[in-house]
Design a protein that fits this description.
By secondary structure, the chain is mainly alpha-helical. Helices cover 59% and strands 4% of the residues. Strands 1-2-3 form a 3-stranded mixed β-sheet, with no helix packed on it. α1 packs antiparallel against α5 and α5 packs across α7.
């Protein structure tokens, strides 16, 4: 990884570092919480607490609604050094996104995108249960804890620094905006292995929500333009119906002369 913090040139794997100085205390606290809750699952006395906070079918079966907001902060996965790499990537991306957005906007993004992902995933799982679709007995596993955080932070970085070039695995240059599709592709591969359709839908929702929530994103601007266009057409249709009902004829003026409306 080649740290730059500003991303005007090529960066390294997974974001490339952070702006000069120490990482933000809240990012360090996030990593500590995720790692501590990940470790809880391996002790008999604390494993129920970790399970109680993760996203599970208990959301609708037992009314555990808090799981919709607590699950991103509960580490998930087997006892493997891989958890350290995942948290390191969270640090790389998270620090730069937090530096760009500021603390309040950063945490608003994380909370809103994670909640949207959970709602979509629960909805998909409820649909599967309703139709008796084949799935996994352990839904949401590919979007638990640091995994949904990675989806949100990578999507945020790719949206905010889309023109940057990232050296994937220190070798392959890749535009940052491509990471939006790369993480969806990786989630799809995880779905093929786990059959966790709800989790895959949650990851896709986290990416989509992140892109839409970020101010100034091209997707958000396109969506707003389409909404305004739809609204203008709707107003025109209402005016046409009103004019027809009252026997009025509306003539469009294409010039800029200020002669007023013509009926």
């Amino acid at each position: 990884m080649q740290p730059s913090g500003r991303y005007r040139g090529a960066t390294g794997f997974g974001g490339g570092g952070w702006a000069p100085g120490k990482p933000s205390p809240d990012i360090i606290a996030l990593l500590a919480v995720v790692f501590a809750t990940w470790a809880l699952q391996f002790f008999a006395a604390t494993a129920p607490l970790a399970a109680w906070l993760r996203l599970t079918p208990a959301v609708w079966r037992s009314g555990y609604l808090w799981e919709l907001v607590t699950y991103p902060f509960v580490g998930f996965g087997p006892p493997s050094p891989w958890i350290l790499l995942e948290l390191l990537v969270v640090l790389w991306f998270g620090q730069d996104v937090r530096t760009r957005l500021g603390r309040r906007a950063f945490w608003t993004l994380v909370a809103a995108a994670a909640l949207a992902a959970a709602v979509v995933a629960v909805g998909v799982q409820l649909g599967l249960d309703a139709v008796g679709g084949a799935g996994t007995p352990f839904p949401f596993q590919i979007m638990q804890g640091q995994r949904v955080l990675l989806a949100i932070l990578v999507a945020a970085f790719a949206t905010l620094y889309g023109g940057a070039t990232i050296l994937l695995f220190f070798v392959l240059p890749m535009p940052a905006r491509w990471f939006l599709w790369l993480e969806i592709a990786l989630a799809f591969v995880a779905f093929l292995s786990s059959k966790d359709l709800a989790g895959f839908a949650g990851i896709c929702a986290a990416v989509g929500a992140t892109v839409l929530i970020l101010p100034g994103s091209s997707a958000r601007l396109r969506l707003r333009r389409r909404y305004l266009s739809w609204r203008a057409r709707r107003i025109e249709r209402r005016l046409a119906r009103l004019a027809k009902r009252r026997g009025m004829r509306v003539i469009r003026r294409d010039d800029d002369r200020g002669d007023g409306p013509v009926n």
